[in-house]
């Protein structure tokens, strides 16, 4: 396996050092917590994070109009509670801290422990858990995937407007009721810290419903033309997102060229048009990746004028296409 790394044990630190060079508006504290250089003096502070390997999530969204801090674990590994606590304490300004957590057992447990520790120190902390991956039937077990990035943006907009922590949590949870995602993969991710591939798959196969850590999907089948793949994913999403007007994210998994994401977008648009659906806002690009896995995910959210206003609002993030 050939990877552009110095030493596999330094993957996270080297990555964050590189991030600081090109983003002087950011700082790294406690070795693994990315924060804004200029701390927000008022408004609810937003903290997210998780294992590395999903870049630009989540450190790339630490910016005005989005997150105040991102806690970075090792590759595909949850950050520890003490690091999450460091993030909470660093960004708290007295207006409360909202944790945005993807629904993985390690993330949920460690962010929850950090919340309890912060509350013992008198900091108000609330949590929203993202469960947008429709590939899992049981809602409580659904994974948090690319829809999380839309949450960062919506919550960031609300915070910038001075919305209270209670109201932000209510609005985000209401938004998440309608957000659904599903992914597919042609190839596995190559994990640089282990020197192993995330899973095995034949050159003639694709995985439908894949997770962002290479978790098993809904089915493995022969590779199809892209319109057939788009139709397959859309019809799965349609079982729960029935709105005729949509916000759609076509998210690259890290190894998919932009040219192919644009091709995917063409055929997603065609299938939706055939079904009488209108896309009011598109997001195309790498938002929540899986190292260098080739594939894409689709995220649907019912169109809502207030939500789209939030998604269109300015942010200084270099990685959020608005």
Question: What does this entry look like structurally?
Answer:
The chain is α/β, with parallel strands linked by helices and 322 residues long. The protein contains eight helices and 14 strands. It has two domains: 169 residues, Dihydroxyacetone kinase, domain 1 (Rossmann fold, 3-Layer(aba) Sandwich), CATH 3.40.50.10440; 133 residues, 2-Layer Sandwich (Hypothetical Protein Tm841, Chain: A,domain 3), CATH 3.30.1180. The strands form three sheets. It has a six-stranded mixed sheet, with helices on both faces. A six-stranded mixed sheet has the order 11-10-7-14-12-13, covered by helices on one side. It has a two-stranded antiparallel sheet with strand order 8-9. Helix 3 links the parallel strand 5 and strand 6. It is globular. This is Dihydroxyacetone kinase subunit DhaK.
Short descriptors:
6-stranded mixed beta sheet, DhaK_dom, 322 residues, Hypothetical Protein Tm841, Chain: A,domain 3, globular, alpha/beta, 2 domains, 24% strand, EC 2.7.1.121, phosphoenolpyruvate-glycerone phosphotransferase activity, Rossmann fold
Provide a short characterization of the protein structure.
This is Dihydroxyacetone kinase subunit DhaK. InterPro entries: DhaK_1, DhaK_dom, Dihydroxyacetone_Kinase. With 322 residues, the chain is an alpha/beta fold.
